[in-house]
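Hi P.,

Sorry for the delay on this. The queue was packed all week, but I finally got your sequence through. Input first:
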Amino acid sequence: MYQKKQLIKNLNNEDIVNDIFVIKSKKNVISYANKTKFRFELRVADSSGEIDLKYWGSNDHNEVQSIHSVIKENSVIQVVGKINEFNNILEISTNQIKILNETEFDSSSFIEKNNKNIEEMFQKLNDHLDSITDLELKQLVKTFLQDQLFVNKFKTWPGSNYRHHAYIGGLLEHTLNVMEISLRISKNNPELNQDLLVIGSFLHDIGKLKSLSLSISIKTTNEGITQGTQLLGLKLFEDKIKSLHIPKQILLKLQNIILSSPGKKEYGAIKLPLTPEALTISLAKETDTKINSMLKIRSNSETDQDFVYNKEFGNVYLK
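Then the structure:
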């Protein structure tokens, strides 16, 4: 069985590569060397990140095309090649690729795992949900938690496909963080409805269960691309409450929390927050998302420099 040996985040220019990677995407076969030979490009990944790979093929177009045609998204390949730097970006250059079957590799090599205890986080989440006093909302929580398929998926699902909490258990961690940040805010603002903060935090990102897929890599589903996490979350929520009698006023507030949790339209919100509770949850979500993203940048940086540039944050101080 092939074992992962070299993490993408640790690769440097001119390193020799002899390792396994999962395919994220591929481009069509094109010609090079005055149109006498053929090549194609892949985007490959492991648990630490992604990198471009260029396969330099022969002058036999059919041969190169046959290799290209059997490579699919989520295929795992064994690669022998070298790291080159092109336009200040590292890439793998190779003419040796082997496509592996499922018995030839350990799938855990390709998805990062949460370093926190999932069962402990889920228990904390349950403790907060148990604090809800409204009887209709308690029944709503019960409807979700009695669905073991939902619970199992919720506990393991990632929080995103790459930006924040992009690892097994990331959705649970992010949800718990948003809930606890919201409750801390409520200590200074006792007028906030704590039941709405708890249930709203729990529901705000459940659409990720439909907008993301988890196998040997994290991908955005076709439904996620075409409809978005918030709309998928609203549909999941409304399917669950069909047999419940949620007061109309509470229902409208919960719907707005789900649709507005990204906070801004440019972040993916379908509606803006219309209540103090929805605003609190959206701010807690943004806080946790950005902190997790910046911590990831700092931990993944392989440089002796004091700063690293990031498109979202600008310069990030590493010392």
